[in-house]
Amino acid sequence: MADSTRHLSILTVGLLIHLSHQYGFKNCIGDQYSNNLTFTCSQRAEKLISLIVGDLPASAINITIGNNNVSHIPTESFIRFFKLENLSMDSNNLKFIDGLAFRRMHQLRTLILSSNRLSKLNCSVFQDLYNLTYLSLKHNLLEDLPQSLFTSTPQLNTLILRNNSLHNFSVVVRSVSSLSQLKTLDLGFNFLTSLTHLNSSLPKSLTELFVCGNKLLSLACADSFLTNIRLLDLSKNVELSTTAFKGVDLAQIRYLQMGSTKVKIFEFFKVTNVDATYVDFSDMGLTDPSQIIKLCTFFRKSKHTTHMTLKLNRFNMLPNTSLTNCPQITGTFDISSNNLKQVKCLEFLEGQKHIKSSKIEHNHIKRLLSCKGTKYKLPLTELSFRYNRILSVKSDAFAHTPNVTILNLNINSIASLHFGALRGLTKLQILRLDNNLLTELWDSTFEGLSSLETLNLRNNRIAVIFYGRFQDLGRLTILDLGGNKISHIYEGGLRGLKRLRNLYLDGNNLKQIDSIEFAPFQNTLEVLDLLKNRIRFTHEIFVSPFVNLSRLRDLKLDGQQPFGITRLPHGFFRGLHSLRNLYLTNSRIDHLASDTFDDLTGLAYLTLDNSCNGLVHLERGSFKGLRNLKRLSLQNMGLQNLSKEVFGHLAKLQGLYLTHNVMQHIDVEVLNSLSSLSYLDIRKIPLSCTCQNLELQNWTLNNYKVQLIYLHSLRCKESIGNFFFNFDTKVCFVDLEKYMFFVTAAVIFVSIVVPLLHFKLYWKMKYGYYVFRAWFSEQWRKLREDEENCEYDAFISYNFNNEAWVLEQLLPNLEGNGSSFKLCLHHRDFAPGRNIVDNIVSAVYGSRKTLCVVSRNFLQSEWCSLEIQLASYRLFDEHRDVLLLVFLEHIPERELSSYHRMRKVMLRKTYLQWPGSECTDPAMAQLLFWKQLRRALRTGSRMEDEDAAGEKKSSGTAEGDQTDSARANS
Ligand SMILES: *[C@@H]1O[C@H](CO)[C@@H](O)[C@H](O)[C@H]1NC(C)=O
Ligand SMILES: *[C@@H]1O[C@H](CO)[C@@H](O)[C@H](O)[C@H]1NC(C)=O
Ligand SMILES: *[C@@H]1O[C@H](CO)[C@@H](O)[C@H](O)[C@H]1NC(C)=O
């Protein structure tokens, strides 16, 4: 039987595995936003490609397998992925790719095999890649290319073979010659010594050829091999000399680079037919400005040139005559990376009437002087002085370039920006002053820059924003003040910025923020970055600083120094109805009130990562306002559990990131309540592999909606060697199984044996039954006798005000005077030091009767009510007749109506009325009273219904007697 059960269970398990919908991949992560289309399988230290992609759905379109340890791609490795368009296998230590490795990947467009160790390629590696357009093999060890390597990749457009060990250009040409769509061929940094090639030619489609960084000595003998090439990069072939160009047709070239070669530029122009307009003069060893004048004599063909690039030469200065002979430059004049120490109002550009842009980056310029009164105006619209050593910019430094729209002064040492420095730049749209040493902004620094849209002042040393510094910048949309030392923004410091959309104040020293500061742009601001300031709230605030920012989309408050914002005041996010993204990482928030996020109804993304402050307490309903939240990141927060009260409201949540927390158990109900969830990351959580997580394991293996990241790598907290997905859950069923077994066995046994016994032993059983009944009644009787031996006959419950009556009348009449009842009085018999409630309980239960001396005072006393409660509990719930009421004064029924338990007792039980002094013959009536009371006390507290009849009778008598006595009295 056991065996067959096992077989059955194996069968069921087998079925389960077969039917289960595990959604989660061993080594890959599916992009959260694309349904099973894009996968990243990086840093898995996996060796076998089949194990990496084995469980991916065939629908995949993009797969990235980076930084693994795959050295070999076997044949047909990706045959299932007939829809795949992009495959990247960068940095995998690949050594061998078998023929037909990419078989049937007819849709593949991009294949990246860079940074591996491939030294040889099989000729059928790229078989079947009919639609491949981009192939990168850079940073490998290829020495050779098989001739028919590209026979089935007719669409190949770009081939990158940079940084390999190719040394024979012929071999390359033979291999690529059939690629009729090839446009770009990058052979940079190989070991080619010549571009000679025999018996085959470069494809006619090829227009861009990079052979920089090789060992070229000569080009080719055939003079026309480059006739279709437009872009030719021959730079960094350190042995290449002018003679190599003899007889080479370069007439079609539109861009030629020969920096870092032995080519002598003036000799070169004597032997070549290239148009100088298209030559990049970078790194040609030029030092003397007169060389430029000479160079320009070679621009024979045209009066115009688009660009003139003189980077990486050694010019110290350019006099104003430098470009006199040169054609009109219509694009960029680039003199970056030279040794210029000064530029003197760009006088060398004088006469350039069409120039658009000038780059003077990476030089040694120290100051920009005043250019007020220059006779010429330059039409430049872009001007860049990045990476110089500029310390000061004098006023009117740009008076000669009034049309500039983009000005880059960033990455210098500007400490002094004269207050009129930017005067006249009325067309300026983008101004970069970031990474300088500015400490102060003058009130006229930005005066008149009425077209400015972007102002970047990041990484300076500005400490205070004074009133009205930006007041002319009515068109500014982006203001970057990040990385300064701003501790204070004066009132009106940001006035005038009426179109501001993005404000970056991150990395400053702000301690407070105020809605007034944001008032000028409260209707336009979309991005506010306050990361890494010193904002903290020690007390509640009255108005949220963000209350009027009705368009704010992104708010960053992460990492306030030194310990995080720690506390969010009540109503802090009030009014932010448009907010989409809220960043609160590194905040050490220890408590989230339930209404913190209530106004953020538009929020789509919230991150509280690294808010680790020991343990975070999320109040129930903390997230209830986030109706549109799609992504929630709570990594490294010390979360101990997920509760429905906190997470249950996130109906639109798609991605939940919970890595590095401390919960050992996750309630499946919470996961099920997140109806839109499609991505769950619970890596690095000490999941417990115990029955507590039985349901979770079951859920992870049977859910088809939520991708569980690296499901098969999740480990058990108890033992790092075991995995969560397959921890042994049998133990969880063992108890149940045993229980079921015994119950079933018992039922079967009884249903077989009893009829048998009944049939065989009917009379014996009947006899036995009677014997048992007799024994049982005997035991029952004994039990009751025990109970009769109570410590006291009656517990007297009375109010302090009636004590005189109890001591003077009741005690003598019941304890003395011939009758020896044993009474319990609390002042006399209660154990001292014992809890009063315990005393009452033991008194009520240790006495056969509870006698209540009822007066108005009694009814109001709370002790007594407890006593009555107890006694009446015994009466009603234990069905024991223990309660006896003695009314010391006449209390009309309507007064009793509020004591309805008492009324219930009176309706049911006997009660005695003390004949007071109002009676005509009190002595006689009292004698009768004591007689009745003694009789009532003598009746046992037997089970009520057993002799209910007797009781009723006696109560009738007592009442009758009492009525009689009352009648007698009157
Ligand atoms: C696949 O990758 C390409 C290139 O990275 C990207 O443009 C495209 O959107 C991706 N496709 C999907 C479906 O994610
Ligand atoms: C290339 O891709 C197109 C568009 O998806 C497809 O129709 C065509 O069949 C593919 N070419 C080959 C040879 O498979
Ligand atoms: C994605 O693929 C997995 C595994 O093949 C499957 O379980 C899941 O249902 C698919 N998800 C979607 C959204 O199609």
TrEMBL record:
PROSITE patterns: LRR, TIR. Residues 790-937 form the TIR domain. Gene3D superfamilies: Ribonuclease Inhibitor, Toll/interleukin-1 receptor homology (TIR) domain. SMART domains: LRR_SD22 (SM00365), LRR_TYP (SM00369), TIR (SM00255). The keyword Disulfide bond does not apply. GO terms for molecular function: signaling receptor activity. Keywords: Glycoprotein, Immunity, Inflammatory response, Innate immunity, Leucine-rich repeat, Membrane, Receptor, Repeat, Signal, Transmembrane, Transmembrane helix. SUPFAM superfamilies: L domain-like, Toll/Interleukin receptor TIR domain. It is a single-pass type I membrane protein. Residues 1-22 form the signal peptide. One of its GO terms (biological process) is toll-like receptor signaling pathway. InterPro entries: Leu-rich_rpt, Leu-rich_rpt_typical-subtyp, LRR_dom_sf, TIR_dom, Toll_tir_struct_dom_sf. GO terms for cellular component: plasma membrane. Pfam families: LRR_8, TIR. Residues 941-970 are annotated as: Disordered. The keyword Repressor does not apply. This is Toll-like receptor 21. It comes from Gadus morhua.
